[in-house]
Specification:
The complex is a heterodimer of chains A (about 425) and B (about 450). Chain A has about 425 residues and is α+β, with helices and mostly antiparallel strands. Chain A has 14 helices and 14 strands. Chain A has a six-stranded mixed beta sheet, with helices on both faces. In chain A, strands 10-14-11-13-12 form a five-stranded mixed beta sheet, sandwiched between helices. In chain A, strands 5-6 form a two-stranded antiparallel ribbon. In chain B, strands 1-2-7-3-5-4 form a six-stranded mixed beta sheet, with helices on both faces. In chain B, strands 10-14-11-13-12 form a five-stranded mixed beta sheet, sandwiched between helices. A two-stranded antiparallel sheet of chain B has the order 6-9. Classes of the chains: A alpha+beta (about 425), B alpha+beta (about 450). The interface between A and B is large, with 72 and 92 residues.
Amino acid sequence: MIRAAGAFVLAVALAAPVAAAPAHVTVVDAGGALAFAQSDPSVPIAGLLLLVRAGLDRESAKQNGLAALTAEALLRTPIASAAQPDSVALADAVDAAGASIGYAVGAQSVRFYLEGTPDGVARAAPLVASVLAKGPAADAASLAAARAALAERIAGEEDDPRLVGRAMVRSAYYRGGAALPPFGNPAALTALGPADVSAFYASWYLRGDAIASAVGNTGPATDAASRELLGALRAGNAQATVLVTRPAAAAGKRIVTHREVGAPYVVLGFAAPALGERDFPAALVLRALLSNLFERTGASSAAMPFRSTGALYGYDAAPAQLVLWINGGRVDPEQGLAGIDAIAKAASAKPLGAAVLARFKETARGQWALETVALDARASAIGGAVAHGFPPDTADGVGAAIARVTAADVLRVAKRYLRTYDVALVLPRGNGN
Amino acid sequence: MSGLRTSLWAAVSAALLVCAGTPGGAQTPVPEPPATGVLPGGVAYALRPDRAQPVAVVALWFRAPAAGFEGPPVAGLSRLAAATVTASTPVTGTALAQLVERWGGRLAIAAYPDSAAVTLTVPADHALLAVRTLTADFFAPVTDQGGLKLAQRDAAEAALLRSFGPDAIEDALGAALFADGPLHDGTLASPQALASVTLARVRAYAERAFRPANAILVLTGDVGAGALGSVATRDGAAAGAETPAPQTARIATEPLRASGNFPGIGLGWAGPPITAEPEATALDFVADALFAPRTGRVTRALGTLKATVTGKFVTYRNPGIFLVTISGADAEAARPLVERVVADAAQPIGAAEFETERARFVYRTLADLTAPSDAADTYGWYAVEGDPAYAPAEGGAQGKYFTLAAHLTPASVAAAVATYLARPPAVVTMTKRSGKAE
């Protein structure tokens, strides 16, 4: 017989750890620069995001890969430190300080992420600031190493059919630099030299529109680090760009490519609202509906290769793009595409029934909670919201906003965003179909 | 159950009994329950909330040999049984896996040689429901043919995924190190073996393994003490946790040969038991210092060789094991380099280099504990292996584990290497299986 245990409330000396209050975002005094912190003292490490407006939208077609090459060159800039008296690359010096640093290239920004124990962040931040103040080493050897590192990242993306498809539907959706591959391509990278990197850095790595956001075990160490990193950037603002996308009324593109992949993938790109926009919560409900369309009931949450469908939502760019993928190894690609098309049309034609709406609002809230667990995701959500003019704690309110989504909201958003879409078909090499 | 674990929980239980009798009135503030304890139904628990997290994690750990308690061993039986429970339709009408999917959460099943874990990551407002459902479904397990069929597919997919990585070689090393027991039998199942397991065997395993008294409930993330009141229990379930299954060290002879989807070489050493905490911490440090990607001493020594080397110390009750895998086109050429670097680690390194390696080790270990599910894994693992107070997540950077890490010295680390890694390792050579991957 199963029964619930009775109330278990007992007074003891060995009390459970005092639970932290839900975290709020606070403003960090960084001398006028934009800096924020969201404390979670139960986490033993801290993460610090530095967002600079030096993303793909700053590249011309001939400069594809330059945003990534500049970021990579920064991490490979030689520097001496107490732990490493002989000059080593910045990333290695940070590592020796008991921390780590990486970066992501986006449509409208590059986001550096420094993580470590508070002591590690305190040791590493001056190293990073020192390189930011001088700019990236643009000598031939450093750039060759940076190009090699980018070539590895490019190859890594090429191995993943979902990312290949996403790159294709991105290129169909965005105009200008935002349509270009984030890491460029190996041939284009060789054409970029020291002067290009130096000029790109000087033009776009500016304090006035940079944002620092610290998460986790924040405190004096991360506050100081935020000030150091922002303070190392050159003063000034750059003119903001406006991302241009294909006209909403334009017919979707159909693109086919072949790669060394095990199964065909169908990837669909939809226009979508960005984080902070009114339509965003309803779009997450639609994402839950569409990305679970073909999932079979299993015994545990399926690992990625065994999922039938999924979504990659680039909500940190505005306008954003929602990418759905169908694993042709699990679902017949033609049927999968027809199924998504049918659901998109149905959702655009009439309101969802109450039961379906409740079901997918619940799923959407859970999915959102799970994708904001990682420290870097939390830091990025703060920086991304501020970059688009929204409050820094915008992401924290999304769960409650999903709960308020109505059938009319979903219908409105479906009508606006689901009617046309681009399709990329990623086929295994040698497949003649 | 180790003496330490028994005495700790016995002490906590005693404290509960004593304090339960303390007079209290309506004016008395309701206190928090202890962070670690045993519920009236016999379920041990660890409650480590972090209310700043957006999710709650609810995990059940069981001490249970992966290949079964009795009868012919079937690698992966524990995972199959757990998956059959999550996929079968309970009396409440909806399978646990379906519920979690509807919540937008994540359900993970993990099988280790001597334990199994089922972990739910759910939005915080589903925490109580998750606790109630998970404990009800596992403490009175319903297993049906439909659930078994789904579980067999799920287990086969999990095994296939693992078979394409170093896990496959590490699993095979168990048979090279031990003549019998859970580590010898391993966890990596063949699809054929999984397909032949009967519902009766799965049911018998689930009934024995997934009892309240054999469970450790771990709660992390945004979950309050009230969740403990939602734990289901079961009248009439057998009391007492399972005792660790015995295993016998294998006399090292010729290298074992195996075939699979991931060719390479495995080297394995028996290490200290979990209760030898300073030495176990030292070997964790060594694994990081030697094998960390990019900065590890072995990684740097490889130079231009096309080889990937992994190394880890796994803190089992007794003994722990140190596992190294070498894969890639130049694996054979890399092996002597790897063995030389390991042998060299028996000599103390300089103080400055040691401090750098310690800073890296501390950060990387802490970084693996930031997500509530990661923290739950360490609490569950160290509790099931008999030393919960030694869990790296316990107390964070100021806890027992990292205090021990702070006290490591170049000499103590070198001594641990000399004691455990200077002897010839057990060796497995995994060759590529011909034909279709399975």
